[in-house]
Description:
Blueprint: H1 2-22, H2 24-44, E1 49-56, E2 59-60, E3 63-64, H3 68-78, E4 94-100, E5 107-114, H4 117-195, H5 199-250, E6 257-258, E7 261-267, H6 277-309
Antiparallel strand pairs: 1-5, 1-7, 2-3, 2-6, 4-5
Amino acid sequence: MREKQYTEDEIDLKELFNTIWEKRLFVAIFTLIVTLCAGIYVFVKTPIYEVKSIIEIGFIEKQLVEDSSVIEQKLNVIFNVDDKNINNDPKKGIISSIIQMKTVKNFIEVKTEAVSNEIAIAKSKEILDYAQKLYEPKIEQYKTLVNNDISNIEDEIKFLKNEKMKMLTDKVESSKANLEKYNQEINSLYKSNTNANDKISSMIVSVQMVNYQNLIENAQNVLKTSSLEIEQILKDTIPKLQQKKEVIKFKTSEQNLTNTRLVGNYVTSEYPAKPKKVLIIVVAFVTGFILSIFIVFLINFIRNNKITKTPN
Length: 312
């Protein structure tokens, strides 16, 4: 029983092969026509080039100017990425996708298509320019605040150098001049006291000498305090302010503050991304071949069915 079944299957396969062989010319012509049509299509179809670019989202003090998913949604809506009625002219450039990269959250991948790489790059630049302008006010506002802090520190340093130091220096010079004057007065009084003949004159001179000694002590205190304050300003206050200024200035550096920017270069190709000529022709050839065989079997089935139904 099994041998009979195997024999029938073998006969059926032979019949199928014979049917195809008999119609081999039709199969070849049909397959050739389908392949030629596909070839004409791919060579007539306008080539479309694809450009890829990576955009890094701007940040302020390691904080993104806005969440990357929000930026992705904004750009997709603004540039009508999903609206094929608007975003469908390859001569002006088509934005095929704007997606947040999964591996790096602060990166967004942009793909554009056009009839040339130059147009596709120009379309990509539109997206980058828009993203930069979108967050430029926020970055400029931050820069203004930082620059105000820097300006305040510079004003403070300028005040210390030009006014405070001058005032203290004047105090020092004035104290030195007073000390010299008071010492001269004491020497003069000392000589007068030596030559005094009565006790009253001697007492008056002594009182005056005590007063001048107090004045000398006060002048020495002012001299010492002012000198120490000058040294404090020069060696401590101003250097600390300058150091603070450099720390604040770092806030506006590229490592701490940057607008949205292009990472690397625009990725282009010398060959168009669409249509995929070889793939389309191969698929057309295989499809035409399979379809031609199906038509042969269908015609053969219909013909055999008619012969079976025809009365003898």
